[in-house]
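Checked the freezer inventory, then went back to the computational side. Two predictions to log before the end of the day. The first one is the construct we discussed on Monday; recording sequence and tokens without edits.
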Amino acid sequence: MRILVSGGTGFIGRPLVKALREAGHEVVVLTRQSALATSGNDYIDSIDALDARPDAWINLAGAGLADKRWTPKYLEEIRESRIDLSRHITDFLLQRQWIPEAVLSGSAIGFYGASETTVFVENSPNGSGFSATLCSDWEASVKPLADAGARLALLRTGVVLDKESGAYPQMTGSFKAFVKTWLGSGKQWLSWIHRSDVVSAIIYILNTPRLSGPVNLTAPAPVTHRGFADAAGRAKPTLLAMGVPAPVMRIMVGGVADELLLVGQQVLPEKLRASGFAFAYPTINEAITAIES
């Protein structure tokens, strides 16, 4: 299968591209890293350089939500890197009538908004706030390909955990000083997934024609932020435990705190479980044990 991957050099994209190539697929990576784009036909830095119809498009591109403080300029960058790029690639494929058999397009569980009590599944409604609007618009940007006949799966991904980078080292940074911490009250939900399960799930969705529409990429056992801290504390030695007060978080990171860190949502992977997908790390204890091993 010839697969176009946008965002193929990112946190999820790197191991995904490796796994796809090991499975025998021809993978073309769309990347902003010009050095890679000049290294051969496997990497391009402009969609205009794509020279043939892809059988599938996996869309993972986007600036990190928590990479920088949420200034108006960075909020615009977040939207452009997701919505504008997705629309551009969609228009490119439609204009050439290169309709992929399958489109797996990134989204996030922020689609559902925040709640400490609601359990969200794939047919739950769109929430409110910047993240919910971003995800809704992001998903809409690729839907013309579904209208043209592609099977479209919307990858509503939770917080992805692994040791190398991403949320896990940030959330456990204080543990290096033997201090177990959680954010705010710690009661907010964390719907998480191990990075290897994300990669496996994406390949599973690619190979499972009956899976389309929204698909939650989250582990089946969400935890609270305090629950995550307790689980990490069982794997790392600590001497103290404390919550980081909400006002301190707002001073430190601005709007990110109220949109992503001090709130959360309990999201279940109903479609994946019903289809028979097997998680390698279904619980937070199993995931952290693997990360720390």
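The second is the one RB wanted added to the comparison set:
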Amino acid sequence: MKNISEMNIIQIDITNSCTKKCSNCTRFCGHYIKDRIYFMDIDYFIAALTSLKDFDGIIGIIGGEPTLHPQFKDFCEIFKKLKPDKSKRGLWSNTCGNFNKYNDIIEDTFGYFNLNDHTRNIMHTPILVASEDIIPNIEERKKIIDSCWIQNYWSASINPNGAFFCEVAGMLSYLYDGIKGLDIIENPDWWKLSLSKYNDQINWACDKCGGAIPLIPRRSIEELDDISISSLTRLKNIKSPKIDNGLYTIYNKGIDYTQIRDVAWYWGYQD
């Protein structure tokens, strides 16, 4: 795995509210009851940016759909003040929600974009297929987890539960009300710390995640999540709307080791 200080991007998850319920979403949209939908407090957003003032990579605002945040315009103004380099301010959006409403503000604020309306034939790998269910051998599982493309090639993150070594681990923590992240007020240099400081997060989250494993992906527009047995139990415990509505299937397609271990597992396209 990679130390956070070596990453090119760090995400701030300002909301888990979304206009969509895509298959195998890394933010698990569709699994939250109403009381578990959050909109990040503006003071916490300032604290998040302040903790990253020396980070030289891209800071991304992500959701859910970030433009649904009722203070999105205010967030943009704060972002411009605290991160003066426009090229280092990123937006991840499905271009729905209030994207068109805030179009001028978005163009003025962000210099880096990852825009995906999920209407194309995009494929998502099964994040909620727990690696511990698929690969019982602990040593084999650790080797695969250590080469996880999400952690090695993508992003650490901050959400209301704190700072995390991996963006998916962070949202698993929020989804399951699990292990808390590092307090960004008490640990403003959280992203400079050795990855060994995140061992508790790694040990808690990675066994519950399928991101590192080359599993068979599903079209995002199906809105059906592939999950494993232990995940089903956890999702029932949190009263997931997707589970209650039958928008899931127990994954039984096995591992495809011929797949390339990179972002194509999650964001791969099919003709």
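For RB: The domain at 1-119+138-209 is CATH 3.20.20.70 (TIM Barrel). The chain has a mean pLDDT of 93. Let me know if you want it refolded.
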